């Protein structure tokens, strides 16, 4: 009786495996690259999975506007015992990035079979150069606290970096906060110096540099990042002169008095 129970349990497990089957994504592959206006999508099912009526290919990327799985092609079963489903889509309709997840969902009357691959790069364009840089070129800053910003093209950009060419305030590059079309970062206590800077936009694979802007930091009393006293003020100079003048008059009066 116990053996019979074990045999029945094994048969149920095997039956479950046959129903669930297996799918293999052959295009794209994990960490692969997708490009072109007719990229081929391919999934292969197990030899026993001949009952699936269609497969839906999907894609999403958390760093782009497509943050939830979106169907990019649907392929119907067109032959008897079909286990290979092949479709295609125009990859330029989705944004370049290197964190795409491509998936497939094959269905029949009662079962859904899914498979996905991660880390896929979509690479069709290069990011647009950032514009509207702030502070504007040849700006003079007088307190050493500066907010750098630029406008990016969201359709081709997933991130941006503040880059200093030559002299820098502590590091040659700073990762900026990117949201929609805005790249921003604030730096404080920047030493007195003249800086050349620009914004580098990226789509996760390619990068593009903006025009270079010049910034001069002239914080009163701060040179080379080390605070120091510049010297006596004009008021202090005037006070000292007045005291010396009074002392001179008193000395002259004393000399005249002694002579008499």
Describe this structure in words.
- This protein has 260 residues and is α+β, with helices and mostly antiparallel strands.
- The chain folds into 2 domains: 22-122, Immunoglobulin-like (Sandwich), CATH 2.60.40.10; 131-226, Immunoglobulin-like.
- Helix content is 17%, strand content 42%.
- Strand 16 and strand 17 form a beta hairpin.
- Strands 10, 12, 13, 16, 17 and 18 form a 6-stranded mixed β-sheet that branches. A 5-stranded mixed β-sheet has the order 2-8-7-4-5, with no helix packed on it.
CATH superfamily placement of the largest domain: Immunoglobulins
Structural class: alpha+beta
Domains (count) = 2
| Rg measurement, Å | 36 Å
The overall pLDDT, averaged over residues, is 84
Shape: rod-shaped
Largest sheet: 6 strands, mixed
Fold-level CATH name of the largest domain: Immunoglobulin-like
**Count of runs of 4 or more consecutive helical residues:** 2
Count of beta strands: 20
- Strand fraction equals 35-45%
Distance between the termini: 144 Å
- CATH top level assignment of the largest domain: Mainly Beta
In short:
By secondary structure, the protein is an alpha+beta fold. The chain is built from two helices and 20 strands.
List keywords for this structure.
260 residues, alpha+beta, Immunoglobulin-like, 2 domains, 6-stranded mixed sheet, 5-stranded mixed sheet, 20 strands
SSE topology:
Blueprint: H1 2-20, E1 23-27, E2 33-34, E3 39-45, E4 54-60, E5 70-76, E6 84-89, E7 97-107, E8 112-122, E9 131-134, E10 139-141, E11 146-151, E12 159-165, E13 173-175, E14 177-179, E15 182-187, E16 193-202, E17 207-209, E18 213-217, E19 222-223, E20 226-227, H2 234-259
Parallel strand pairs: 2-8, 10-18
Antiparallel strand pairs: 1-3, 3-6, 4-5, 4-7, 7-8, 9-11, 11-15, 12-13, 12-16, 14-15, 16-17, 16-18, 19-20
